[in-house]
Amino acid sequence: MMSRFDALKVLFKYTENIPVISSCGNTSREWASLGRRDNHLYMVDTMGLTPSVAIGVSMALEDKGFKKCIAIEGDGGVLMNPNALASAAYLNPKKWLLIVFDNECFASTGGQCSLAGRINIAQVAQGFNLEAIQVEDLDAFEHAVRTSIEKDGPIVIHAKINQENQKNPFINDDPVVLAHKFSQFLTQ
Amino acid sequence: MATFRDLACEEIIKGIEKVNPDYFLSIPCSTVGPVIEHFEKSDKVISFPVSREEDGVGIAAGISLGGKLPIMLIQDTGIGNSILAITTFVQAYHVPMLILVTRRGGFGEINSAVNLFSEPLPRILDDAGVKTFKLDYRLPLKEWSTAITQGAQYARDTHRPIIVMFNIKGGAEQ
Ligand SMILES: Cc1ncc(C[n+]2csc(CCOP(=O)(O)OP(=O)(O)O)c2C)c(N)n1
Ligand SMILES: [Mg+2]
């Protein structure tokens, strides 16, 4: 099974000019360790909100050149705020791509068991009438990312990953700076 | 004869139209039904419901980061559903956003539970440092639309969430 870090490395290759919003905890830390870019928005807290913010960005960017706005979220985060799935189903944001890294645990806080071991998140997304692609290995993940970027959304990629965390420094930048860079990237 | 509520709703509609947002997000409160119905029919603004205020705050924040203007209208208990998003995202990341909030609790309230959140809410928001302007019967209704436009401007100028709260039931300060 792939690690979150392996999958993020793949995603990094394809998203040089695509806004990407990453969830709190190890996801943002691993993502930032690959290289800081202004098209990244690192969430330092507000667990579960990443997909919602990405819906808003996708809507605001409807007439702009960006192909997508990508949200990276964990299984814990998605199940904390499944409301974003409802909104994506209702609003039908064409540029919204949600990548769920599902390790069936709260890896960032030490690997405690989450609810995802007994819930299939791809099926939950499909239950909301969303297109969902389930992947279990790196090749399938890469293929899903490449094709989803070229296609109208909303799309959910449900990626099963192992429970590994990379050791990376905390992101304790001033959030104002993080938001400013991202917003400038989107609107200039 | 038009009631205080009817007139208040007209003023709120007028204020929102003066701000001319790109998006109008809402979860209804019985007191402002006419406002939401008005924007559902409007072709000048994209109006949509959300399922939970926390999600709405996230969506509105994304819209704002993307350079468009959102306004969200919710009842005050919805702040309870979204205060973490308002503080640790909107406030922390300096995202400008106007949130219009209708007041529950206090004289005229018949619900036997909401008072337990609505009454302490102003103190909760003060402690959290979320700037809130409160409109009630003491501010002439004809000033309410101006308060809404100023709230939107203040959110932009001070780079943060601004709450404008309306007590439409009238009566004494809670
Ligand atoms: C409201 C709230 N509760 C708890 C936490 C602590 N917390 C931070 S990251 C995290 C785990 C997130 O799990 P998941 O979304 O599955 O991501 P993973 O770390 O497994 O990749 C938790 C519980 C938090 N940040 N916010
Ligand atoms: Mg997890």
UniProtKB/TrEMBL annotation, chain A:
Occurrences of domain Thiamine pyrophosphate enzyme TPP-binding (ranges): 43-158
Gene Ontology MF terms: carboxy-lyase activity; thiamine pyrophosphate binding
UniProt cross-references to Gene3D superfamilies, sorted A to Z: 3.40.50.970
Pfam families: TPP_enzyme_C (PF02775)
Top-level taxon in the UniProt lineage: Bacteria
Keywords for the protein's UniProt record, in alphabetical order: Decarboxylase, Lyase
UniProt-recorded name of the protein: Thiamine pyrophosphate enzyme TPP-binding domain-containing protein
Organism the protein comes from: Peribacillus saganii
From TrEMBL, chain B:
Record-linked InterPro entries: THDP-binding, TPP_dependent_decarboxylase
Domain of life: Bacteria
Residue stretches in coiled coil: none
Keywords from the UniProt entry: Decarboxylase, Lyase
Presence of keyword Chaperone: no
GO MF terms, alphabetically ordered: carboxy-lyase activity
Protein name: Thiamine pyrophosphate enzyme N-terminal TPP-binding domain-containing protein
Species of provenance: Peribacillus saganii
